């Protein structure tokens, strides 16, 4: 069980007359609507639908890692784009069965890639595979494609049109077929998918994400800021500008 | 057996509650019944004053002003509040735009959201017909949930919406009374698809977006939306149920194609409406995460998560007072006593869904849509976390 935050929420002290009236009416209504089955407990629940609020949050154990450690700046990283010394690094925690990840890759990633082309941004992709085995298999295939210098092409193909593939579309044969369509060495890709190095790296990336709280995808780290979910592209452009500005002013 | 609470009680019928005190036919201001566009947008909520789940921290949050919990279909929420002596229903899309508004008398009004035979989402609002000194009757009218255009009605019904779905009954005579016999309407046409008679005979459990559930003396029966053809039957004896033990559930719908029905005072059954199978006969509540196609069932033993093939992903024991607040985006929000706890629904791990350093009233999702919008509760308001850009569309064509 996770630790409590120890900080109680501020319970609203002002409740409108209308809400109170509705809550009271709910009590009457609950008594009336469930003949023979109504308990005081159920009455309270109906009223709580308007008024109740939690006072604490049960959190998981705090991660040992910090946000900065997520950036590797490894020149041989097959899952990265952009110069290793780019002023801003975006670390993306994703999953190939996550529809919001597909949406983000389709709508926002191209805009981020413009900054990569300009030398201002480095993107490091990490899959956390919260959706299970098919995601992990696709992640290994994408990594193997990366070993042939084609991670981003393969990645884009997995999210073609901003849509995630079905679980069957992430089967072994489908992933190899996709590699063939992209002109990759399929025998090498199949071998690399199963290599100890690939398996270890995918597991390491996954653990990194989970340690940083990426239980839900997509999650992003940029300039020390965490972004969760497929937000509008402007949110990411603004976060990039802020991160770049903080580097230029020496704050980071 | 430990008693657990069932939660996420559907309060769409909250509006009906007013009946109990106001009494049908009371003098009220004349409402503007036909759906119309509103000039005013919804007020944006200052997120800095709320402790939002991280998933919603960057989303624009608006306050629809609803005093009822809302119902949702096809990207549109419907809720209501009392304003200047009338009930104002508003349909709000996931971008936070008010698509239309319609008013009804405070008395004998109710609403439900269901689906017509063409898959179109419908809002059904009830209304009262009054003479100068008496209630002449209650009617139901269906509107396209998105456009507000009238689809059918008004048709006479015995009373306000009782639910689940397009089910109506006369209100109880007093706080402890029973409602009258229930009548179900075909959401596609507004015609009667089922009607209880006083005393013996079939009882109507609910209308679930085109599927009518009734119980006769020996079976739970599903019918098509017109109530003409049986889709499947489940023997009551197979599960130890009796006709008297089954009843409509007050829980929110667990998801499309599923229904919860009450099987006793403390338990419910989770029914697969398409297959006519009982997924759980001990469920207290259930919910589906559309993103991962994961089903979560809360029963007297604990929480269970199942994948799309109904293979169990994980089970976890939880405290007796635990309830499901919402499920979506792979996050399962639980209420446990005075706390909220969030699990990754696929792994069962406790997730850090809130910024540990966050401040303000803890805001908990009560409904998360497949496209990432959500209804949130901050203890005093029903708030909408929107997706996409702020609305700019001129809807004056209504």
From TrEMBL, chain A:
<keyword id="KW-0676">Redox-active center</keyword>
<dbReference type="InterPro" id="IPR036249">
    <property type="entry name" value="Thioredoxin-like_sf"/>
</dbReference>
<keyword id="KW-0732">Signal</keyword>
<keyword id="KW-1015">Disulfide bond</keyword>
<keyword id="KW-0560">Oxidoreductase</keyword>
<protein>
    <submittedName>
        <fullName>DsbA family protein</fullName>
    </submittedName>
</protein>
<dbReference type="InterPro" id="IPR012336">
    <property type="entry name" value="Thioredoxin-like_fold"/>
</dbReference>
<dbReference type="InterPro" id="IPR013766">
    <property type="entry name" value="Thioredoxin_domain"/>
</dbReference>
<comment type="similarity">
    <text>Belongs to the thioredoxin family. DsbA subfamily.</text>
</comment>
<feature type="region of interest" description="Disordered">
    <location>
        <begin position="43"/>
        <end position="81"/>
    </location>
</feature>
<feature type="domain" description="Thioredoxin">
    <location>
        <begin position="53"/>
        <end position="245"/>
    </location>
</feature>
<dbReference type="Pfam" id="PF13462">
    <property type="entry name" value="Thioredoxin_4"/>
</dbReference>
UniProtKB/TrEMBL annotation, chain B:
<dbReference type="InterPro" id="IPR015943">
    <property type="entry name" value="WD40/YVTN_repeat-like_dom_sf"/>
</dbReference>
<protein>
    <recommendedName>
        <fullName>Pyrroloquinoline-quinone binding quinoprotein</fullName>
    </recommendedName>
</protein>
């Amino acid at each position: 069980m996770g630790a409590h935050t120890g900080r109680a929420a501020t319970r609203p002290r002002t409740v409108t007359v209308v809400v109170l009236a509705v809550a009271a009416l709910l009590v009457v209504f609950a008594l009336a609507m469930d003949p023979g089955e109504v308990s005081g407990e159920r009455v309270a629940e109906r009223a709580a639908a308007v008024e109740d609020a939690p006072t604490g949050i049960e959190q998981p154990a705090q991660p040992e890692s910090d946000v900065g450690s997520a950036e590797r700046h490894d020149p041989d990283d097959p899952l990265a784009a952009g110069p290793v010394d780019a002023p801003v690094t975006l670390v993306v925690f994703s999953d190939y069965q996550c529809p919001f990840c597909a949406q983000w890759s389709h709508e926002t990633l191209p805009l981020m890639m413009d900054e990569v082309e300009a030398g201002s941004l480095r993107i490091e992709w990490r899959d956390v595979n919260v959706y299970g085995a098919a995601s992990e298999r696709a992640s290994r295939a994408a990594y193997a494609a990366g070993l042939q210098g084609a991670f981003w092409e393969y990645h884009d193909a997995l999210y073609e049109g901003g849509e995630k593939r079905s679980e069957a579309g992430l089967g072994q044969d489908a992933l190899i077929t996709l590699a063939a369509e992209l002109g990759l060495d399929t025998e090498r890709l199949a071998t690399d998918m199963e290599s100890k190095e690939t398996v270890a790296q995918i597991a390491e990336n996954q653990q990194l994400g989970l340690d940083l709280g990426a239980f839900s995808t997509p999650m992003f780290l940029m300039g020390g800021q965490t972004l969760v979910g497929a937000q509008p592209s402007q949110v990411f452009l603004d976060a990039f500008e802020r991160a770049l500005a903080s580097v230029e002013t020496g704050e980071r | 057996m430990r008693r657990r609470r069932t939660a996420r009680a559907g309060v769409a019928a909250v509006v009906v509650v007013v009946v109990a005190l106001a009494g049908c036919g009371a003098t009220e201001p004349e409402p503007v019944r036909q759906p119309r566009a509103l000039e005013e947008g919804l007020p944006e909520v200052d997120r800095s004053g709320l402790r939002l789940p991280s998933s919603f921290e960057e989303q624009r949050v608006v306050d629809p002003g609803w005093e009822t919990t809302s119902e949702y279909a096809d990207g549109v929420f419907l809720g209501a509040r009392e304003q200047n002596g009338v009930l104002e229903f508003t349909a709000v899309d996931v971008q936070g735009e008010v698509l239309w508004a319609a008013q009804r008398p405070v008395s004998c009004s109710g609403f439900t959201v269901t689906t017509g035979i063409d898959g179109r989402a419908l809002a059904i609002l009830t209304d009262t017909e009054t003479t100068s000194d008496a209630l002449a009757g209650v009617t139901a009218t269906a509107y396209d949930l998105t456009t507000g255009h009238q689809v059918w009605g008004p048709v006479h019904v015995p009373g306000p919406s009782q639910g689940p779905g397009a089910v109506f009954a006369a209100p109880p005579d007093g706080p402890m009374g029973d409602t009258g016999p229930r009548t179900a309407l075909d959401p596609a046409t507004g015609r009667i698809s089922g009607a209880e008679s006083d005393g013996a005979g079939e009882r109507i459990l609910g209308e679930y977006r085109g599927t009518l559930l009734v119980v006769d003396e020996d079976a739970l029966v599903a019918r098509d939306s017109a109530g003409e053809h049986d889709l499947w039957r489940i023997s009551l004896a197979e599960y130890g149920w009796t006709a008297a033990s089954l009843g409509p559930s007050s829980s929110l719908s667990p998801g499309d194609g599923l229904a919860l029905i009450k099987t006793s005072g403390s338990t419910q059954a989770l029914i697969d409406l398409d297959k006519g199978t009982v997924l759980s006969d001990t469920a207290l509540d259930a919910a589906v995460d559309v993103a991962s196609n994961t089903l979560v069932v809360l029963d007297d033993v604990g929480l269970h998560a199942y994948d799309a093939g109904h293979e169990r992903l994980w089970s976890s024991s939880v405290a007796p007072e635990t309830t499901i607040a919402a499920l979506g985006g792979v996050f399962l929000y639980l209420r446990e006593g005075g706390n909220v706890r969030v699990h990754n629904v696929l792994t069962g791990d406790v997730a850090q869904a809130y910024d540990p350093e966050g401040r303000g009233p803890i805001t908990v999702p009560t409904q998360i849509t497949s496209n990432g919008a959500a209804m949130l509760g901050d203890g005093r308001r029903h708030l909408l976390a929107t997706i996409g850009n702020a609305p700019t569309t001129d809807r004056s064509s209504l």
